[in-house]
């Protein structure tokens, strides 16, 4: 019998949701079912998070949001699952988007009482652009919910994706009695578990079994049967091909806090989710089975552990086998490096990684000059396409408060910009540092980290700009030391990006329109594709 490639049992996913829909709870429950922890909640429960005393956590505590993403790995049902956590707050969208470039599928958590919310929609669009499979978990069935038919309709109408419920709820809120598997009509009866701490016991019976009506009010059963008949007639049929193309989302119902429906979701997800996908290097698709090792950096984070000033670059392995201490080609630095300090993360714990395969994520600790999007490979001809940079929508100027800490300010800025906390620009005269970010909270994170991690007090002032465009001439970004024009309408300014390309910053679309009238011959690009 041929031995399957180790990457074929890898599944790499992220969970996306609007804040409070239950992403953290579901993550914990996955770990519980994966046997990675004994009691759900011991990894990331808010209570524990609050008890964590690191400085970095302090900001999370103040804000009540999750800032850093972590990679969690566990085994379940013979699969090796890599779960990439995505930060929950809207302002961290850029970081979240980058994480999404490193996964092969996502689970979208929807609060059954609220339906599809704004942030879910935004994240969903990014997944759609990548064409990755999207699974839906409709959570909090133990609370009063909207009608399940409405929820499924909303997913189809608002998100524009076909859906196929794999199971169906029997009641909701205080009358929530269980979940019916559509494929075989089996009912999993709901039992509340104490604080959701243990795997939920499951009693299963056929929906048509007369015993069901001893446990459940007849009207609920009749209603569920009627709704499922409607789905059979009017709903999209199940189609694995369409799932893999991201055109049809399998929908699961449950209650993460009560461990209910989690196992059905995990089993369903793992039976349908794709193996690790290849990645394009120019026109060539590098497949996971390719013997050459390759991977790319999708996230960098410094000072994760304040006790050890360190920096971790997260690598998604695309092909071949990773071995500790291996030599690889680091394309953007144009040199060979040794990957000696490789680690995998389990919440705050770290473990040395000796080997890993396509689909896995490895954290490299050290001071290598990695940047987001960098390729690491044993074959220097492989170079993965860049991870997209998102055009900033808010801007601020920043400077060190005192000259005494100027050196630390520069070191901190260099590091944090490299991590992608914010983008950095320079005023046309070269006198002012301008920060650009998708959301303003990123500025606060930068300021906080400069002060706490680098001891550099800063002055940060918001700028009025909301729109950025790169100046282009004949398809190329305009560079050069001197500003290409001083003929600017009101509400506009010129600045340079970190690569020395000229950009126009505008207060609003109207100002940008005036700029276009002044400079009809220039093309303006919303972003640069390297
Ligand atoms: P997030 O990561 O998507 O932001 O959501 P999170 O898991 O933190 O859940 C948000 C709140 O919803 C939490 O309550 C959590 O306990 C609750 N929750 C999650 N799943 C369910 C569910 O199936 N049923 C019900 N009723 N609630 C659920 P909290 O009060 O904000 O925090 P906590 O102290 O309970 O952890």
TrEMBL record:
Keyword Protein biosynthesis on entry: yes
Pfam short name (any one): EF-G_D2
MF terms in GO: GTP binding; GTPase activity; translation release factor activity, codon nonspecific; translation release factor activity, codon specific
UniProt cross-references to InterPro entries, sorted A to Z: EF-G-like_DII, EFG_III/V, G_TR_CS, P-loop_NTPase, PrfC, RF3_C, RF3_dom_3_sf, RF3_GTP-bd
GO biological process: regulation of translational termination
Swiss-Prot/TrEMBL keywords: Cytoplasm, GTP-binding, Nucleotide-binding, Protein biosynthesis
Compartments (UniProt record): Cytoplasm
Domain of life: Bacteria
Segments forming domain Tr-type G: 8-277
Binding positions for GTP per the UniProt entry: 17-24, 85-89, 139-142
This protein's GO CC annotations: cytosol
Family: Belongs to the TRAFAC class translation factor GTPase superfamily. Classic translation factor GTPase family. PrfC subfamily.
Function (record text): Increases the formation of ribosomal termination complexes and stimulates activities of RF-1 and RF-2. It binds guanine nucleotides and has strong preference for UGA stop codons. It may interact directly with the ribosome. The stimulation of RF-1 and RF-2 is significantly reduced by GTP and GDP, but not by GMP.
Protein's recorded name: Peptide chain release factor 3
Species this chain originates from: Luteolibacter luteus
Gene label: prfC
């Amino acid at each position: 019998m041929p031995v399957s490639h180790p990457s074929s049992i890898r599944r790499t996913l992220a969970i996306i949701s609007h804040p409070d829909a239950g992403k953290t709870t579901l993550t914990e429950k996955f770990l519980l079912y994966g046997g990675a922890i004994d009691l759900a909640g011991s990894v990331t429960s808010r209570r524990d998070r609050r008890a964590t005393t690191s400085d970095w956590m302090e900001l999370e505590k103040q804000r009540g949001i999750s800032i850093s993403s972590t990679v969690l790995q566990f085994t379940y049902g013979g699969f090796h699952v890599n779960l990439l956590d995505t930060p929950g707050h809207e302002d961290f969208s850029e970081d979240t988007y980058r994480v999404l470039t490193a996964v092969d599928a996502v689970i979208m958590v929807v609060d059954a009482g609220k339906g599809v919310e704004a942030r879910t929609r935004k994240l969903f669009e990014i997944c759609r652009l990548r064409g990755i499979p999207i699974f839906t978990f409709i959570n909090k069935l133990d609370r009063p919910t909207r009608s399940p038919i409405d929820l499924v309709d909303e997913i189809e109408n608002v998100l524009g994706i076909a859906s196929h419920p794999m199971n169906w709820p029997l009641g909701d809120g205080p009358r929530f009695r269980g979940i019916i598997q559509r494929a075989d009509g089996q009912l999993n009866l709901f039992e509340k578990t104490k604080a959701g701490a243990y795997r939920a016991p499951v009693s299963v019976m056929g929906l048509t079994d007369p015993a069901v009506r001893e446990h459940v009010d007849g009207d609920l059963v009749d209603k569920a049967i009627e709704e499922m008949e409607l789905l059979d007639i009017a709903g999209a049929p199940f189609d694995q091909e369409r799932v893999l193309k991201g055109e049809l989302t399998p929908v699961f119902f449950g209650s993460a806090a009560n461990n209910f429906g989690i196992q059905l979701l995990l089993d369903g997800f793992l039976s349908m989710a794709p193996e690790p996908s290849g990645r394009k290097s120019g026109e060539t698709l590098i497949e996971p089975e390719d013997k050459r090792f390759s991977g790319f950096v999708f996230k960098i984070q410094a000072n994760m552990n304040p006790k050890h000033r360190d920096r971790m670059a997260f690598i998604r392995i695309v092909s071949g086998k990773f071995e500790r201490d291996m030599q690889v080609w680091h394309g953007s630095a144009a040199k060979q490096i040794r990957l000696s300090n490789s680690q995998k993360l389990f919440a705050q714990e770290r473990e040395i990684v000796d080997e890993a395969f396509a689909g896995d994520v490895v954290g490299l600790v050290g001071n290598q000059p990695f940047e987001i999007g960098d390729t690491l490979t044993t074959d220097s001809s492989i170079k993965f396409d860049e991870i997209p940079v998102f055009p900033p929508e808010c801007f601020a100027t920043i400077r060190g408060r005192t000259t005494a800490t100027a050196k630390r300010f520069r070191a901190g800025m260099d590091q944090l910009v490299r991590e992608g906390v914010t983008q950095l620009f320079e005023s046309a005269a070269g006198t002012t540092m301008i920060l650009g970010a998708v959301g303003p909270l990123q500025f606060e994170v930068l300021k906080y980290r400069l002060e706490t991690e680098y001891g550099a007090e800063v002055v940060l002032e918001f700028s009025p700009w909301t729109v950025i465009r790169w100046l282009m001439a004949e398809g190329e970004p305009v560079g050069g030391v001197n500003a290409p024009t001083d003929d600017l309408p009101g509400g506009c300014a010129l600045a340079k990006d970190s690569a020395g390309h000229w950009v126009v910053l505008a207060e609003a679309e109207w100002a940008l329109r005036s700029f276009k009238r002044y400079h009809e011959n220039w093309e303006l690009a919303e972003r640069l594709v390297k």
